[in-house]
Amino acid sequence: MQFTINGQRREADVDVRTTLLDLLREHLALTGSKKGCDHGQCGACTVLVNGRRINSCLTLAVMHQDDEITTIEGLGSPERLHSLQAAFVAHDGYQCGYCTPGQICSAVGMLGEVAAGWGSHVSADLSSPGLNTDEIAERMSGNLCRCAAYPNIRAAIAEVGADHASAAA
Ligand code: FES
Ligand code: FES
Predict the structure, then answer these.
(1) Is residue 163 domain-shared with residue 90, that is, in the same domain?
(2) Atom 2 of ligand 2 has which residue's CA nearest to it?
(3) Is the ipTM of this complex over 0.95?
């Protein structure tokens, strides 16, 4: 199999039963994506595939020939944080941190969905002044946090969502 992962062309020889999550963690040593439930229930394994957020535990690696995959390792670096990573730090959007890579990848995908106008039934006004807390909770409902850091996670996402809304205005 060949993929583009975090902007780099990568190859892997995988069993057809290997999930995308196991490909990342076990074959490519990209352990930022976490295995929480392995059943599509927690969102800890969320990554971006061709810009869309998916649960990597629910999809087989062989389904992703030539896809562009972005994991938490590809969003930013300690020296140069992605805006959502910086917002999670500023708002204390984590406790143990196990759900955090999935939360951040999911939030990146979610803000892309908002920009594309998806799910506009959730809110009458998606452009201004940003996403409210209820809407963020609904749109992020696939990402669980066992530490219940939800208020801070939503505050971090709201800050970046408001920045996106002002930039688009
Ligand atoms: Fe994939 Fe929980 S590990 S959803
Ligand atoms: Fe611990 Fe979310 S910070 S599970």
Answers:
(1) yes
(2) 145
(3) yes
